[in-house]
Amino acid sequence: MARVARSRFGVFSILCVGVLIGYVIANTNTPSLQFADAKETDNKAASVKTPPSVSSVKATRNRDMYYPGSEDLAPNEMRVTACGTGMPNARPKQAAACWLVELGNGDKFLFDIGTGSAERISAMQIPYNYLNKVFIGHLHSDHFGDLDALYCGGIVANRVVPLEVWGPNSIEPKYGTKAAMDAMEKMLAWDIDTRMGNTDTRGAFLKVTEFPYDAISNVIYEKNGVTIRTIPAIHIFDGCVSFILEWNGLKFCYSSDTFPNKWWLEHTQGADISIHECFIAPESLVEKQGFTPQAALNVGTQIHTSPAQFGKVMAETKPRMAVAYHFFNDFDTSPAVLREVRRTYDGPLALAVDYMVFNVTKDDIKVRMAAVEESVWPQPSTIPLLPPDPKIRRTALSKKMLEGRVVHREVLQQVYDDINKRFGSNEKVPE
Ligand SMILES: [Zn+2]
Ligand SMILES: [Zn+2]
Predict the structure, then answer these.
(1) 365 lies in which domain range?
(2) Choosing a second label site near 400 at 20 to 30 A (CA), which of 56, 140, 169, 390?
């Protein structure tokens, strides 16, 4: 016990000294103090020169962040952004599964749109007309739980084109993507119908393409030099797929959820970027969530791909960049994930968190974090908006509700007058 206590104290002491040194360095922000060590060195060895002073007001030459909306893609470049990397419980740090792929030809695609991810998508400051293609790997809510938010929020945010959704069928129609989308439209009847005739609602339509989940290397999208194929994924129940997008000699692979499988090993070889689920290490499920070892092993290694299995998959497919997602990536969980992955794989690796950005070209893969502005607004429409068409209005207040309105006419008159004056309009307060 004494040895343990002493060694703990030793670690504590080292930590304290480390923190102290870190504090001193962090607070030593004047050039003269920063180079105090160099002057001492000069006394010992005259050949060592003092580094030139760095102005604290000059812009740095290279920035290590991605600022959404500020960088054009090169014609041959692909940008992949993590808009959700976590688990079914959405949390402030990580939304559930969602990946945005942008190509140098202007195309944009969303792969899965799990709970909480709509907020991350909005942070990318892309006009919603471009966010109209969603590919769903399977119908767990952590992979499509924010589709309604993109659908309805997109209408309000000036998406004036239909939302297109691709997703798999299953062993019965009721488990397929078409049935889920029909049900979602029914769920949203009040939302959609209240908007009809009150705003430009050309975006209030869904276009659904359901495809066979068990087809192998099945082309489901081919346009503008982009090909998207699916392979079956294995996850609890039939009706899951993984996606392979190819464009301009670049290959993006995304597993959604799957146990390691032969189709992934065969069809994702040598991908430029390979995003595969990597569930949290079973020990973390026991320690953090009170799972029994049996339940942790079942969920963490049989239903999902554990970190060591993820590593094995990557070692056998050799992507240029392996991306692990689908775990809560924290200071106290990532060491176990990394340890397990490194048992089986020693290649390029990113343990994903939300807002991680990958710029992929044939020569380079740059990995950065996006710098996100929380008070972001939707971008204006890229297509001119149409005025509301009262002829397609589907809803109206009943007589009882109309009679309950309290109209402060003089207040409204002032608001209308102010707006008319400021913007040169001539709007009249309705009777
Ligand atoms: Zn799932
Ligand atoms: Zn999942």
Answers:
(1) 65-370
(2) 390
Q: Do 411 and 285 have their domain in common? A: no
pLDDT reading at 48 higher than 80: no
Cα 97 to averaged position of ligand 1 atoms, centre (Å): 10
Strands (DSSP E) found in 146-211 = 163-168, 206-211
**Which position has the token pair 């976590």?**
86
For 73, the token pair is 């893609």
What is the CA(255)–ligand 1 centre distance, in A? 11
What would the pLDDT profile of 139-176 be if each residue is shown by its tens digit?
999 999 999 999 999 999 999 999 999 999 999 999 99
Q: What is the mean pLDDT of the chain?
A: 90
Greater confidence, 229 or 46? Answer: 229
d(CA 32, CA 53): 8
CATH for 111: 3.60.15.10
Q: CA-CA distance, 61 to 274, in Å (whole number)?
A: 31
Residues 6 or more apart whose CB falls under 8 angstroms from that of 302 comprise 259
